[in-house]
Design goal:
Distance between the termini of chain A: 43 Å
Largest sheet of chain A: 2 strands, antiparallel
Strand order of the largest sheet of chain A: 1-2
Order of helices and strands of chain A: HHHHEEHHEEE
CATH topology of one domain in chain A: Arc Repressor Mutant, subunit A
Radius of gyration of chain A: 23 Å
Shape of chain A: globular
Helix content of chain A: 25-40%
CATH class of one domain in chain A: Mainly Alpha
Oligomer: homodimer
DNA sequence: GTTTGACAGTTCAAAAATAGAACTGTAAAC
DNA sequence: GTTTACAGTTCTATTTTTGAACTGTCAAAC
């Protein structure tokens, strides 16, 4: 999670990616849709390309111009987008209602995303989930003493 | 989405919330688990309480102490968390593997979150979704000319 | 009965990120 | 020859974030 947030966890990256999903591909398109500063936009696009989330594809020679296209890695962010949008639709809408509706082509209906268990197919609630350290676990999860018993407590406070 | 990102879209908020889901409740707990500066942590906790995502609950008098507990609004962020974790598990793991496994109590198995359509129950792919402006639509979505009828045929460059 | 430690912050200077605005460069259109 | 569209880059000013120390309360330890 920390690694993912290092990539998409800032004020603009997810909004840029939203535009990608809405078929924006070019610098000016992002800039005018979002009002992001050009400097930051250039910065973020570079980062997303470095991360393999966008691909920079030339669409004209002479003044070299490129489009930014979602890779598969980028497309895989879709559930994150939808989860965020859905939470916003549930908790952050004003009187006017949802800004955007999503229609599922396969069934033809406007839908909300539902998170289900890959194993049993049932919707998952936070309370129903138990976590276990996996093979790449990064921290012992409640470690206090690894060292010898309290050697030199350093002086806290100014009083000596 | 913009409104949601204004709340959870920064380098620390989602990590703080992850700790909440892992049952961390107290200031020192967050601080030592994340290594966030105390200043920012205090700042972020205040913001989350203001937003109604956490509730500040006293757990002792005398030196007044509080715990930070997820509200329902906060618990509803779970699908976002899981979507992020799953993307990280798919695209950002190192050789060691996943840091954390999630077990679904209802079926007993370790699972991945799957996003399905609320209407037909099938998994949803980005390509299968069509968007329409909703009642709260904020911008015309591809407006170029609101003024006089397209007087300028746009400059096209030589296709490459 | 003073000292230490746990806890939950606050304060302040320094460093980093972001905003705002103007500037660069290419090439076609007028 | 001037303007326009596009995709950036450069610069300064503001805002955020970091790092580190400081404040304050109370309980237990010495």
């Amino acid at each position: 999670m920390a690694r993912t947030i290092a990539v998409i966890g800032d004020r603009w990256t997810l909004l840029i990616l939203r535009e990608c999903f809405l078929r924006t591909r070019r610098f000016e398109g992002f800039q005018s849709a979002l009002g992001i500063t050009r400097h930051l936009l250039a910065e973020r696009l570079k980062k997303l390309v470095r991360q393999g989330i966008l691909r920079r594809v030339p669409y004209q020679e002479s003044p070299k111009r490129h489009e930014y296209i979602l890779t598969q890695k980028g497309l895989d962010l879709y559930p994150i987008m939808m989860a965020i949008v859905h939470w916003g639709d549930t908790h952050m809408v004003d009187e006017r209602g949802r800004p955007l509706l999503h229609q599922h082509r396969n069934c033809g209906k406007n839908f909300d995303p539902v998170m289900v268990c890959s194993e049993c197919g049932e919707p998952v609630l936070a309370k129903e989930v138990h976590t276990h350290p996996g093979p790449g676990a990064r921290r012992p999860l409640a470690q206090k003493e690894t060292e010898a018993p309290a050697p030199k407590p350093k002086a806290r406070r100014k009083a000596a």
